[in-house]
Amino acid sequence: MTREITLSRAVNEAIAEEMRRDPSIILLGEDVAEAGTPFKVLSGLVEEFGTDRIIDTPISEPGFMGIAVGAAMTGLRPIVDLMFGDFLYLVMDQLCNQAAKTHYMSGGKLNVPLVLRTNMGATRRSAAQHSQSLQALVAHIPGLKVAMPSSAYEAKGLMKTAIRDNNPVVIFEDKLMYNDKAPVPEEEYLIPFGQAHIKREGRDVTLVATSSMVQVAEAAADTLSREGISAEIIDPRTIVPLDEETILRSVRKTSRAIVIDEGHQSYGVTAEIAARISEKAFYHLDAPVIRMGAMDVPVPFSPALEDITVPNAAGVADNARKICRGELIHAA
Amino acid sequence: MTREITLSRAVNEAIAEEMRRDPSIILLGEDVAEAGTPFKVLSGLVEEFGTDRIIDTPISEPGFMGIAVGAAMTGLRPIVDLMFGDFLYLVMDQLCNQAAKTHYMSGGKLNVPLVLRTNMGATRRSAAQHSQSLQALVAHIPGLKVAMPSSAYEAKGLMKTAIRDNNPVVIFEDKLMYNDKAPVPEEEYLIPFGQAHIKREGRDVTLVATSSMVQVAEAAADTLSREGISAEIIDPRTIVPLDEETILRSVRKTSRAIVIDEGHQSYGVTAEIAARISEKAFYHLDAPVIRMGAMDVPVPFSPALEDITVPNAAGVADNARKICRGELIHAA
Amino acid sequence: MSAAKKKKHNTEEYLRMYTQMVRIRAFEDNANQLYLSAKMPGLTHMYSGQEAVAVGICEALTPEDKITSTHRGHGHCVAKGAHFKEMFCELLGKEEGYCRGKGGSMHIADQANGNLGANAIVGGSMGIATGSALTAKRLGTGHVTVCFFGDGATAQGLWYEVMNMAALWKLPVIYACENNGYSEYTRTEEIAAGSLTARAEAFGIESFKVDGQDVLAVNKLAGELAARCRKGEGPFFLELDTYRYHGHHVGDINRDYYRAKDEETEWKSARDPITNFGKWLIDQKIMTADELVAIDNEIAADAEAAVKYALDAKYPDVREVDMHVYADTAA
Amino acid sequence: MSAAKKKKHNTEEYLRMYTQMVRIRAFEDNANQLYLSAKMPGLTHMYSGQEAVAVGICEALTPEDKITSTHRGHGHCVAKGAHFKEMFCELLGKEEGYCRGKGGSMHIADQANGNLGANAIVGGSMGIATGSALTAKRLGTGHVTVCFFGDGATAQGLWYEVMNMAALWKLPVIYACENNGYSEYTRTEEIAAGSLTARAEAFGIESFKVDGQDVLAVNKLAGELAARCRKGEGPFFLELDTYRYHGHHVGDINRDYYRAKDEETEWKSARDPITNFGKWLIDQKIMTADELVAIDNEIAADAEAAVKYALDAKYPDVREVDMHVYADTAA
Ligand SMILES: Cc1ncc(C[n+]2csc(CCOP(=O)(O)OP(=O)(O)O)c2C)c(N)n1
Ligand SMILES: Cc1ncc(C[n+]2csc(CCOP(=O)(O)OP(=O)(O)O)c2C)c(N)n1
Ligand SMILES: [Mg+2]
Ligand SMILES: [Mg+2]
């Protein structure tokens, strides 16, 4: 049987393995060295690779993001550690105006092989500036790839692929999943980008879910299966590139789809995936595609409010039941 | 007959009228005073309102955006002039972590009444960092409102409403439309947010188009009408709040929809609108909703390439013909 | 003012400063306890040890003057005049909190007393404070704005942008850097090249370094600078040497790997702002030891009562979740 | 080195500097002409007047040393070794351009000669340059990176962030501020408080002010600093006083409202870097006036030929539009 390790450990292993393999990889961010990040994900790396390669930075997100872009253009392969996904706003210029466009603007002559690892996820009582899930923002920008691991297994395999990719890649880890364990092989493996994972096969409804929403979908699927509804769960794993084919194949089979993502619903990830399904599996759909994103509100601090802002298993099961029973969700 | 003025003039008038009405309004940005902005949109304002209210800033987008947030929280009503929409990335933290969330995080006690006026639009040979249409990014963030005027008439009416709104509002002007004229009444008027405009009535297909894409849709509709296809054009005018009802009413009538926006297609504005139509007018649709955004590529400089990255009238007409004829656009 | 009156006046001021410092300490001790006993959601950053900074400065301000605060913001909030009850309610996510529970520790604001809010983005409030000063100048209110931030925040580019504009436009803003020697788990020397005061001076901003554990020194300087701001002589920069007693946040318990126990003991025993000011008050015969203990006890009781109240208070109704996303606009 | 050899050596260097400055001027004159005759798409920012900065610095660098450039980047590009043909092709959006026409004037890059690219975000390349220096340090290449930017760009917070890190990590980077007195239509005094050199010095960065119209002075200083960078003594800051002859961009023709004609005339007649250096070469008997004219003419002919070539060259195939969004990754 494969050993089980935490998502945190999986990320750590992926980075350590790649850094052993390729001396041009460096990692930089706040409190990444001795402290190993506040989430302790990187503990031990500085002991092995030293402070020349595991680099503590001042609290200068735009600055060290820019430095990473320049380092990537000239021969290093930097991993940028952005402590909270909410700080993405601070690095957007360097990420989207510089990193994402350099290869194209140079006519293919300059490369920017860098990884921006950051996190997402609410319900940690961290309030509006430490709880956002901003994957939609970067997914919109051509030139960036975007990975959203849903377990320790994906976290390791996607991180290794990201590090070897010659493009800027943004990886969102769910900060509530760092201690979640999953089977992770001892042997090396990589997970190719643009290949969705059929997490569970099913007949009646397709649940397309990203990151921790895969767990939510699984819990819903368990409930549904007890009621005789068979849900198929698709984890895109990367939203750019998006494995449209696997999603469409599933929906053509089940004729029903629910798309679940923890970013805000409006103008978010669920919109893109739902729109593609509605367009390209139009004649196979028995019911409208249902979108379940986070509520369009800043994340509230109060525990009484925060939990209801994100999709949960009961809500997914409920929606699945409704479309499977042919109930009109909206007076459409 | 109403006089015709340029979009540029309309914006200028709106700001001047509001500044005369309300002394708490200030405007700040780069080269806004004597120079009246590089696009000359604000010419004359500093002569009337002085440098205390029309304020030239250093090239410090995050800084003056932050200053505007603080000024708005304490009694002024700032208009921030962001010279190019591409610089939005630089102000995202102050706009999205601060301005957008302050009212909510303070439990409704602090307000941030500010307007961020900026622009969008490619085909000006300005290359990848001066041509982006980034409305989708801000539309995703709860707490912001987003307006996209499609003519001088809208530009004036929406700007006045934005200035009076007690929330942060982002207005995207199409920089290629500054010299386009439209009839604009001499009398004061405001255009309420969240009220789409039925630009043209039609039977066969609904074209939902934002900003300059309304012109594209009109050109397409002209062509189509000569072929006996009657297109209805809906201009949402604000994408947050979005007037879903008017759009759905139209689609329920025509049974077909094309959504056109100049932002990148993937994870963009067309996704949200198409997803909502597909979900909420599902049983009325005769064909999949077609999305036409800009290509998912950084905007190329070369004239030979740039023009083909954005939706055009021929393309819209083509797609409209196809769905009206019942051709399957995708092997769906 | 007669000498007697002046003495009376000063005594009142001293008492307020002492009281406010003790109130901050009491608030934090209770907040820490709430966390350790798992009664507080999330986590929070303790201000204990830095009391003389917030109190010395805020006592030099009027209620209409503004401050912006940080992730380590309880001290600023108390010092600017907030009440325990609404603060604890906020920390516990209750409806009666200053922000109806929506903000929590990192976003607590008290608009009525001029506190524009804590901020969970390091440096995030530097623009806001400067903008608040722009309002004061434009409307001629005579209000001063103090922007509190940590040594770590000086690494944020935003600061240099707004200092430049504040200097160009002569805005009534005081940038107050609480240099507690650390940002998270990193020593200031490791992340700050050169000199902080020189950075502000390079923009033509008059700068000062002061012992942040000495409430009287802080208060005196802050008073002078606030007055000069009101005369249009701002902006100013203030670097205050201080120390945080707890970890970076309440959960940062084992910190030997980045900070020596001895160093902590040294600051706590030799440089505690409350102990030292208390001693001074006794030395100067302004207060007796017993009087101070009475104050301490009363505040402790107040804090305890507020905690109890907050624990029992109700959460906001779930229907509040999508209220306050947008402010109403008069038609 | 014998005196004769040294003289010869210097003569070659002088000649290269003269030639490179004239090449920049010729390039810009042609680019301006292309714009005025509506043959160039978009708009562009002329470097004319600032030639001694780019040439003085780049002649102190090796081809492996790196530079980052700005929206006003043709001068840097030529100075770092680029060819007219590929440059004009790029400005005209042709396939044979340095960036296959995808970048244009504001994004022209010439990786082979160490030019990491122009940048249309003011200050946008400050991080890139610093990162390039990090690469040099980490890989021990001994390369220096020069970060060119304008006076206006000093208002971007990014600069302070990367200066701090460059200083902490002792990176081999030279920040070269071309102070041409204006950012767009605004005088530098109106947007820059205090002193630029003091701003860098506050981070412990050694700073220099130099006459940017004097190619020899610039070259000498740049040579010394590059050598010191290679020895691990970087970073450095350089403020170069200079002037742009044209408007902010080619379309900025009527500029009386922000800049006096007299001022322009004064700089052009008294401080032109090419004229003055040419005079010096003649005075020193290094070159004759005729020899210089011959050089000028040859370069003019080269430029004209390159323009003609570029005008006739073909555009990229439309199928290129979605190429180069992503780089390939070896499996
Ligand atoms: C933009 C940003 N980057 C990083 C963080 C994470 N963080 C929170 S507090 C902190 C250290 C701040 O240090 P300092 O400014 O000295 O304040 P102190 O905690 O010492 O009071 C960091 C890095 C953050 N909240 N915001
Ligand atoms: C972030 C950003 N803000 C504004 C602009 C618009 N802009 C282009 S050049 C320029 C002035 C730059 O001045 P300076 O740095 O002195 O360079 P110069 O043009 O004088 O060479 C401005 C404001 C921009 N391109 N990028
Ligand atoms: Mg600190
Ligand atoms: Mg300049």
| CATH structural fold name of chain C | Rossmann fold
The helix/strand order of chain A is EHEHEHEHEHEHEEEEHEEHEHEHH
Biggest sheet character of chain A: 7 strands, mixed
Instruction: Compute the number of strand runs of chain A.
Output: 14
Q: Helices and strands of chain C, in N-to-C order?
A: HHEHHHEHEEEHHEHEHHH
Counted by DSSP, the helix tally of chain A is 11
CATH uppermost class of the largest domain in chain A? Alpha Beta
Q: The CATH topology of the largest domain in chain A is what? A: Rossmann fold
Bound molecules: thiamine diphosphate, magnesium ion
Largest sheet strand order of chain A: 3-2-4-5-7-6-12
Strand content of chain C: 5-15%
Count of discrete domains of chain A? 2
Q: In the CATH classification, which architecture of the largest domain in chain A applies?
A: 3-Layer(aba) Sandwich
Could you describe the largest sheet of chain C, including whether it forms a barrel? 5 strands, parallel
CATH architecture level-2 label of chain C: 3-Layer(aba) Sandwich
Helical residue percent band of chain A:
25-40%
CATH class of chain C, named Alpha Beta
Total count of domains of chain C: 1
What's the name of the CATH homologous superfamily of chain C?
Answer: Thiamin diphosphate (ThDP)-binding fold, Pyr/PP domains
Which spans of chain C have pLDDT < 50 for at least 5 consecutive residues?
A: none
Straight-line distance between termini of chain A: 49 Å
GO biological process, one term (chains C, D): pyruvate decarboxylation to acetyl-CoA
GO molecular function, one term (chains C, D): pyruvate dehydrogenase (acetyl-transferring) activity
Catalytic activity (chains C, D): N(6)-[(R)-lipoyl]-L-lysyl-[protein] + pyruvate + H(+) = N(6)-[(R)-S(8)-acetyldihydrolipoyl]-L-lysyl-[protein] + CO2
Domain Dehydrogenase E1 component (chains C, D): 20-318
